[in-house]
Amino acid sequence: METLTTEIMVLGGGPGGYAAAFYAADKGRKVILVDRAERLGGVCLNFGCIPSKALLHATKLIREANESSARGVSFGAPKINLEKLRAWKDSVLEKLGQGLSGLSQKRGVELLRGRGYFEDSRTLRVETKEGQRFISYEKAIIAVGSRPAMPPAFDLGNPRVMTSTEALEIEEIPKNLLVVGGGYIGMELGTVYAALGSEVVLTEALSSILLGVDSDLIRPVMRFAEKAFKEVRLNAKVVKMATSGKQIKVILTVNGEQREEIYDRVLVSVGRAPNCKDLGLENTKVTLDERGFIQVNGQRRTSDPAVYAIGDIVGGALLAHKASKEARIAVEAISGESSSFKDVIIPAVVFTDPEVAWCGLTEAEAKEKGISVQVARFPWAASGRAMTLDRTDGLTKLIIDPQTERILGVGIVGAGAGELISEGVLAVQMGATAKDVADSVHPHPTLSETLMECAEVFYGYSTHTLARKKG
Amino acid sequence: MDIRVPRLAEGVESATVANILVSEGGKIEKDQVILELETEKAVGPIPSPASGRVTKIHVKEGDEVAIGQVLISLAEEGAREQAPKEKRDQLGKAETGVPAPQEPARATEEPLAGEYRYESRSGFPPPASPSVRKIAQDLAIDLTRVKGSERGGRITLEDLKAYIQHLQQLAYAPKAAAEKAEKAVAKGVDFSRWGSIQKERLSSLRRKVGQRMYDSWSTIPHITQLDEADITELMSLRKKYGPPFEKKGAHLTLMPFALKAVAAVLKKYPIFNSSLDEAAGEIVYKEYFHIGIAVDTEAGLIVPVLRDVDRKGLLDLAVELNELVEKTRQRKISLEELQGGTFTISNQGGIGGGHFTPIINKPEAAILGLGRGALRPMVKKGKVESRLMLPLCLSYDHRLIDGAAAVRFMNELVQALENFPEKALKG
Questions:
Q1: What φ, ψ does residue A96 adopt, rounded to 5°?
Q2: CB contact, 8 Å: A255 with chain B?
């Protein structure tokens, strides 16, 4: 079979890979996109961001309907048709996937479905359904992503021990569910299952959920979780799991004390691991770091001059939008531009209830690095809009350089924080000062006002709170 | 109306803005001093020709301005207040009749290549939009060296352009660049490593004096001839005629005597009253005797010129001298009064001091330094007597003047001071 030749070969069809392929095509390059999945979109579209948000949206309604009775509007008990829910979620994925295929086709990006394997620095072998194909390329962009980590001690080969991938399929609503790991995946999926009616116990080995996030932003989420979940256990470690009939026996230590518990299902969400194996990277000059991520420079070039890598596979924040940004940088670098990942602000959102979002410098990071900052906080209890939404469980904060008044970081917890953070990203990325935000009129009544008022808090003249004068 | 740079003095085409004494939006009266312009060694006040409100200041301190250049725009009293055009456009029609809000003054300092450095306490890069950052990256410009003009020091595209233009200017002016580099090296020493320090910005006058001294010292081969004059008799004359002079409003000091004596000797030795025109290869002899007097002011050294010293009587000289020194100390001296000197006297006697080596006030050919008169045992007609001796120091341009001429000049001067004719005091 003849060898395909192309300028740019992108391996992996997730938000990093397809963004790179599309951008390269838009720049007039000949591109082949190789993905092993039937549907483009990678983990994000198929097993991550999109399905989890679809489920969170559906289940959020359950909670809102519940709480609505206190406001004089009552609904009956929800009836959950799991099949229909799953079908709706899948329809969203299908639509998005088809959209990507269409966009790919219209751009003239050649799609090759199959597993890719590097024969050498300039050749990829692809195992397609129709047999082996070889691609000879000038530059490769690896964007094969990551997968849920499954420690061997938990890997029973029993479908009742799930990763996020299986959990998103919601085969059933277990009576009780153990969520191992209080990171964003555990928290989000725990919220889904709890809303659907499972008794959820969440264990976290460390002293806090969502580790790394500022504690004042975590507090409202923790308060919600303690109410929605049966239990949130911190400093609890799962030692061992075993199949016990139609259930899972779990041995864990809580505050040093060993316990044995039985669950219908277990969700293991203890992190993600790079998909570096079986790629034939050893046939290239690509090197890995000690955690198994591909090593790249600011332009996302690997130690192999012909090979670039982006997204989860290079580590850092394992986020779709980070991958997409890296896609632009890598394609621009290949096109001879001097783009670099340096000084790029990557926001993060946790879609818990309430949502947590932040960007730039966090208060914790400033403290740890000894950076002198001033923090302005605006509690949502002072927001009229939050009150009308019955969601005063929020906080907006700005991390400010006291010398220049420049906004170095923004943190938000509250309903819709994920949408609100973008203004923060713009502010930090543009080098805006608190004055710039305070002086920009925000519409009333909206939650976005909390950003303006928070900046005003810094200057001591926020209308709706009594802020201390800027010292 | 626009207030422009007036004609300052003969031959002076430009000046430096030393101080701006009004602010945009501020009201000013007619004849109120709006700013001070500095030329050569003088700072001249620029009064406002009318009353009104300052709508715009077109210059900033340190700017080089030329005659006719607009300094300040003034909305005259009675005239309708008018916002600048672009501002009106920006604000739209709703603002008619409302005074335009004041624009805050821009940062006064130009971004200087090689000097400015962004200091990041937070580890964040200098504030700039992603588009500006991208352009800087494409051009390999280090943004930490670009001074931002917006809030929080944010760098705009304009700032980047200004910086690049500045670099280009430097690139095409290798000498200036070399000087800058030298300065940067001198600046490199961190004296605070060895103890506490205090910093003070060089005033523009100080800088100017420094430049002139350096220029004179490094381009003229200086010789300083030292001598002493017995001024015992002169001082008794001063004592005798002090009170009658005082009655006529003149304070009689050593200086009028020295001026008179110097003028007389200069007439005899015109080379000391000349200038070297290097370009033309000529010696320019001046047939007038305008003597500069080094005056120590709070701001630094200024040299006003006393005109036609040879033609003036001692009384006139004493009166004029006092006025000139007073005006100089108050920095009210006009540019005209600082120009046209043919010789300079630097008298340190008021403060103390013996011999020293004064630096020639270029383009003059010589300078006379006076120390403080002191009582010395002197042998006179075989007997030791206590005499008041005045240290004299004559620095001269050795390209024009030979040592022998200097000795003759000095001998003559000593004679003139020692045998000062009493009739000159009787006026």
A1: -65, -40
A2: no
